Structure to design on (204 residues):
């Protein structure tokens, strides 16, 4: 299945300031800039590809009522009412709870920083002491760091396959991010792909 094409004009792409038309940014790399550069060195790809992947997954996960909002909370139906009461939180709907997706992402990211010998961001040091985490309370940059770290330490996911067009965005999402099994794969992949191209068109 075709992957989403890179688009350097995406809203999530961070444009850095340059001094007098030179090659050196006037502002230092952010924690996300640095961790993304590390990820690219380890797994290949470009900033645009990783931002496209994160944009497409967050577009799908947050749904039409909270599209790409970092403080999104999973909506659940209560009779005729839809309420933000589900366990999924933030851009990528990592679940809150002991041993759930949110704190797993924190633990994996912390280990990736330690293994790489990199300075650990303060927010991650604090998060690592928790047993559960609500990522809707964290910044988009912090959530994206956790997304990258989660999959760098994932036992099966491999960013390099996505970056080399060996695995599509929707397959990556289905295989490693969402919780459904093979019985729902066709329907969920179809839904994701439809939203993915809607997202691409909306950003152009």
């Amino acid at each position: 299945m075709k992957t989403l094409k890179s688009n350097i004009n995406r809203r999530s792409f961070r444009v850095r300031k340059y001094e007098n038309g030179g090659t050196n940014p006037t502002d230092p790399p952010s924690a996300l800039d640095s961790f993304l550069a590390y990820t690219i060195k380890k797994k290949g790809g470009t900033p645009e590809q990783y931002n496209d992947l994160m944009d497409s997954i967050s577009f799908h996960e947050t749904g039409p009522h909270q599209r790409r909002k970092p403080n999104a909370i999973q909506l659940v139906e209560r009779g005729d009412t839809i309420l933000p009461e589900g366990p999924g939180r933030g851009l990528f709907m990592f679940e809150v709870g002991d041993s759930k997706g949110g704190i797993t992402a924190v633990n994996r990211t912390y280990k990736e920083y330690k293994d790489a010998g990199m300075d650990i961001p303060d927010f991650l040091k604090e998060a690592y002491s928790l047993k559960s985490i609500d990522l809707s309370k964290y910044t988009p940059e912090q959530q994206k760091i956790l997304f990258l770290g989660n999959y760098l330490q994932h036992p099966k996911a491999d960013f390099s396959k996505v970056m080399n067009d060996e695995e599509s965005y929707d397959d990556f999402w289905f295989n490693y991010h969402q919780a459904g099994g093979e019985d729902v794969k066709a329907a969920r992949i179809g839904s994701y792909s439809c939203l993915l191209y809607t997202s691409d068109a909306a950003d152009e």
Remarks:
- The first strand starts at residue 73 and ends at 78.
- Strands lie at 73-78, 81-89, 94-95.
